[in-house]
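[Automated response] Your request has been received and processed.

Submitted sequence:
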Amino acid sequence: MMGYYIIAGIIFLVSSYVSNKLKSKFKKYSNLHLQNGMSGAEIATKMLHDNGIRDVKVISTPGMLTDHYNPLKKTVNLSEGVYNQRNAAAAAVAAHEVGHAVQHATSYSWLTMRSKIVPAVGVASKLSNFVIMGGLVLSASGMVLGNTVFLIGIMLFAVTTLFTFITLPVEYDASNRALAWLENNNMVTQQEHAGAKDALKWAARTYLVAALGSLATLLYFISIFLGRRD
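Generated structure:
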């Protein structure tokens, strides 16, 4: 299991670096105030209206970087700092979350695919690690059933890995929609647009690191399984 701990350690270090970098970027661009004077909530509302979306509400949610779009309740949930603030970071996040609402309204294929596998991912994420560990313990005890249980655990983990990769085009597309709208509608200056783009770039990298980390872990488990079969 030493290999697993090494992979987990590397993933943790890279994730921590990207997360800290993201926080510093948002702090930096939170000091870049918008010349149009609009708050994140106002940015989100206008982008929704410009895209002909009238049935989605923009609401405030507690916490930092807790922003998300809820397709079931049809709400753009903006953290308090984004909802009320009038800076490039708030504009970037607000427009990004509305980007997801636009994806939903236009039945964006990757978002639709991700939504369909959410129930399976919920189950797989809760069970995979327990099943994998159980399979390893049974195998170490000399039970033939151990390899079968281990394989089932790997398959469950593969579902969560697939989800992280399907999430990537969803997140990148939402950012592209946000940046295009901000620029095409003259919502931000060139400097503000550059700040928004940089902030969203680092936000996207958190998803990329998660996907690559999950893939590395999956491949490690697969290598163990194949090694046990030889």
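Summary generated for your ticket: The beta strands are 57-61, 68-70, 75-79. The chain has a mean pLDDT of 94.
If you did not submit this request, please reply to this message.
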